[in-house]
Amino acid sequence: MKGMDEEPPSSWFSRLFKPREKPALLEQKLSREAYEDYRALLMKARPEVKGSKLTVRLSDGTVELDEGVLKVRAKNRMIAEKILRNLHHYEQPPSLWPAYGLSYSLRRKRRTIF
Q1: Eight-class DSSP state of 83
Q2: Which tens digits make up the pLDDT trace of 26-45?
Q3: Which runs of E-coded beta strand occur in 38-85?
Q4: How far apart are CA 37 and CA 111, in angstroms?
Q5: Cys staple from 71: which of 1, 42, 64, 111, with CB 3.0 to 4.6 Å?
Q6: Does the global pTM surpass 0.85?
Q7: Which tens digits make up the pLDDT trace of 51-105?
Q8: Who contacts 22 (Cβ-Cβ below 8 Å, separation ≥6)?
Q9: Across-strand partners of 26?
């Protein structure tokens, strides 16, 4: 007789061969006016700035803004779409950002080894 905590063999088999989620990249072409609007919006999140490229690192993904292109990278499409939908909430006070999955850019400090 099987114990109550044992899983049926089909469940571990299905987990083993379950398709893995692919990382998602959403890319949107922007007009000059839309680019300027997004740039002003994303500057509130203290992004990493390299030339004309802005990078905002969030806990669930990354938002990149370059001349005329907005890119959202995340571990799956659902999260990437959520980030894209919620970007306009950067207009609200920073205390409300976490409710929408947004935050200040998580900057990674480079360590110097002496």
Answers
A1: H
A2: 999 999 999 999 999 999 99
A3: 48-50, 53-57, 61-66, 69-74
A4: 34
A5: 64
A6: no
A7: 989 999 998 899 999 999 999 999 999 999 999 999 988 888 888 888 888 888 7
A8: 76
A9: 72
Token couple for 100: 């929408």
- Residues 4-15: what's their mean pLDDT? 58
In one letter, which amino acid is 55? T
- Order the strands of the 24-29 sheet from edge to edge: 24-29, 69-74, 61-66, 53-57, 48-50
Chain position carrying tokens 């200040």 = 104
d(CA 108, CA 64): 16
Determine the residue type at 8: P
Q: Which residue has the tokens 């990078």?
A: 55
Torsion of CA 84, 90, 93, 95, to 10 degrees: 50
